[in-house]
Each structure stands twice: as C-alpha cells, then as structure tokens.
Specification:
This protein is α/β, with parallel strands linked by helices. The protein has seven helices and eight strands; from the N terminus they run E-H-E-H-E-H-E-E-E-E-E-H-H-H-H. It is globular.
Length: 281
C-alpha cells in the first residue's frame, strides 16, 4: 500500500512484510494522516489477532510504503519495488494499491511518455499488478459537474493508462450519478487510455473503517477506499493462481464484475464480485 503510511498499532496489521525501501520510508508503520491505514485495512486487514474487521484479502501479507506522494518520491518507491521483485523477494506475487491522483478539473500537461509512467509500465511488464483510484474530480466537491453526466473526462495521467486497473466508487444504490459525495467519482474514458475506457470497475464505499489508530464512520471513502478493495481481490486471485499476469488479473476482475445500468465512463465493467472472480480461476 503506497500511501501515508500504516498505523502499526492496530491489530488488523499483524501480517507484515519485512521489506523496507530507502531509509526515508523506514517509518512506514506510522500514519499521522490516517488515509493509508484506511486503505491497508480495506485491502488486507485481519481480525485474527483482535482486529475489528477483515479486509478483502485477510491472509495477504501487507507491505507498507510511506510516501510524500510527489512524483519523484513515488518513482523511488516503485524503483525499489521493481528491484526487489527482480530479486524474487515477492514469490507469492505483488499487488500495489495506489489511492491517490491529480485533484484537478483539467488535464495536466505531463507528456504521455513521462518517466514515471514508463516505470509503472516496466513494473507491470515484470509481473507487478497496479491498481489505481480513478480520482474524485467530477461532482460537487471540486469541479461541480452534474452528477448525472458521464462526461467530461476527469481521470488523469498514470491513473488512466491501459496497463493499470482503475477503480471508481458507487453508493448504497450502486450509482455514482445521484446527488451526493459519490458523484465525485471521476469519469472516463481517461486521459492516456488507448485500448479501453476507464474506469475498469467500481466498488462501494460507505460505513465504518479503520482510520489512523481508530475507527471512523463515513458516508463515503472516495475512490481511495474503492481502490484497495480491488487490490485485495487481485491478491486473492494470485493466491489461487500465482502464475497470473497483471493483464490476466485485470481481465478476470472485469469479466466477473456485475453489470450496472450506468454508462461505462462512470462504472466501467460494473461492481466487483469477488466470489465470481475466484470461480473464474
């Protein structure tokens, strides 16, 4: 989980990777913000040692990578992950959950061949699954586009490349086109997507969740909370069939998703269905 760190005092996080990246990230098991703790608990928290909830993949080993979320800092994190993967330090497979994005209403001026994006593509080519939040750029929070619209595009940069799994969010009614915070879920097709429209899938976000050493009830967790659900599902698939490629993992997640009566630019292939995805492998 590449984020603000993970609060290691919470009992959900007893399955910890011993992996460490460069010295600036050695406090990865601290989280002064709370955001990374939420994402980690959703992806792979466990109730086995007294935690309140299980995440999607409670038997997965959690690797915490604390970051400033600047592109140069993220580049170093992914570079270290790639080196470690090539040293075969992650024999069970590696899924990277990325619940961040560019919070803007207009496309950033980054060139499509930016070194940061190319490094992510290299990581994926080496077998690392990357899951990204679609972003929270559409509705009343920032850009104030009408909730019912499936446009304009608001999924930017690396969050939109074909090789990653891009995740939006829906509410209790399995919609992000109704008034309310879930309408902030960014719309596709994605700035840099070529072969497929983004988002790829959606996941529901509401209710109580771990947050920086405690628990918090929230009406929505943003696409930040949707992303680690799909990362957890990817981990489940790799646990069942470690030889799956990132492309195969993405295909299974999309093919097993339950269709929703909303435009693909809003919900992609539909809402994730973990049981159906497991059946496919």
């Amino acid at each position: 989980v590449v984020d603000t760190g993970v609060d290691g005092s919470m009992p959900e996080f007893h399955r910890r990777s011993s992996w460490n990246t460069s010295p600036s990230f050695q406090t990865a098991w601290e989280d002064s913000v709370g955001h990374g703790t939420m994402c980690a608990a959703i992806a792979c928290g466990s109730s086995a040692q007294g935690g309140r909830y299980d995440g999607v993949a409670p038997d997965a080993t959690l690797l915490a990578a604390r970051t400033t979320l600047y592109a140069s800092d993220l580049y170093l994190v992914y570079q270290d992950l790639l080196r470690s993967k090539r040293k075969q330090l992650f024999p069970g497979g590696l899924v990277v959950s990325n619940s961040y994005g560019l919070y803007t209403c207009t496309a950033p001026a980054w060139p499509e061949g930016h070194p940061y994006a190319e490094l992510i593509r290299t990581c994926i080519a080496d077998g690392i699954v990357f899951v990204f939040a679609a972003g929270n750029n559409h509705g009343f929070g920032l850009c104030k586009f009408p909730a019912a619209d499936d446009h304009p595009n608001s999924i930017w940069a690396v969050n939109s490349i074909d090789e990653v799994i891009t995740v939006g969010t829906v509410n209790w009614n399995e919609s992000n086109q109704e008034p309310g915070e879930h309408s902030n879920s960014s719309r596709g097709p994605g700035q840099w997507s070529v072969s497929a429209s983004k988002p790829d899938v959606v996941a529901p976000t509401y209710g109580e969740v771990a947050w920086g050493g405690q628990y918090r009830s929230m009406e929505w967790w943003g696409t930040s909370g949707a992303c680690p659900q799909v990362a957890g599902l990817a981990a489940l698939l790799l646990a069942k069939k470690p030889g799956l490629t990132p492309s195969q993992v993405a295909t299974i997640i999309k093919q097993s998703a339950r269709k929703l009566p909303h435009p693909a630019a809003c919900v992609g292939s539909g809402i994730i269905d973990c049981a159906e995805a497991i059946k496919l492998v």
